[in-house]
Amino acid sequence: MAQEQKNKGASRLTKDEEDALKQFLLHDMDRNGTVTAQEIIDFMEAMGAELSDEETKERRDWVKLIDTNEDGAVSVEEFIAMMERNKMVDSPLELFKFLTRMVAAFSIRRKSARP
To answer: Are 6 and 21 a contacting pair, CB within 8 Å?
Structure first.
């Protein structure tokens, strides 16, 4: 199923976008075609990262930002849609920088919405 989802949108991707998608799918620990915040966190910790509470929160906020159907995970389709919305991004590094800014903006919006 994950491979089918990957192939649905992959034909319209650039090489950099394909690379970003492959990096995204590395975090899909159960190979179901979606990535949860916990999978991202577990993957990073397995790779030796020691995430702070703030960094853990950033990963969770990123998933919430991209997860348009609000099922708690980012699907291949949601990830591809996010990349297509952000065609101005020239490289995976620029994509990462853009996503970091988006998570920061999302966090600020959530804080200002609290009573």
So the answer is: yes
**pLDDT < 50 stretches in the chain:** 1-9, 109-110
Residue 23 neighbours by CB under 8 Å, 6+ apart: 92
The 3-state secondary structure of the chain reads: CHHHHHHHHHCCCCHHHHHHHHHHHHCCCCCCCEEEHHHHHHHHHHCCCCCCHHHHHHHHHHHHHHCCCCCCEEEHHHHHHHHHHCCCCCCHHHHHHHHHHHHHHHHHHHHHHCC
Q: Provide the pLDDT for residue 74.
A: 94
